[in-house]
Specification:
The protein has one domain. It is an all-alpha fold and 54 residues long. It starts with 8 loop residues before the first helix and ends with a helix. The chain is built from two helices and no strands. Helices cover 76% and strands 0% of the residues.
């Protein structure tokens, strides 16, 4: 059984910092290089599917 306990001030600070870092990263745009790679993968997958369904 999981025991509920109050977070220490250090744990609260760590939790707040982790949330802030996560939110900062989540707000960043996807780099163009990643977008290009995803598009290449989609095109390769589409071509592969079309070839298989031939």
């Amino acid at each position: 059984m999981k025991q509920d306990r109050k977070l220490s001030s250090l744990e609260q600070e760590i939790e707040a910092n982790l949330k802030r870092v996560y939110e900062d990263v989540a707000k960043q745009e996807v780099p163009d290089r990643f977008t290009q790679l995803l598009e290449q993968l989609r095109e390769a997958d589409k071509a592969s599917s079309e070839k298989a369904n031939g």
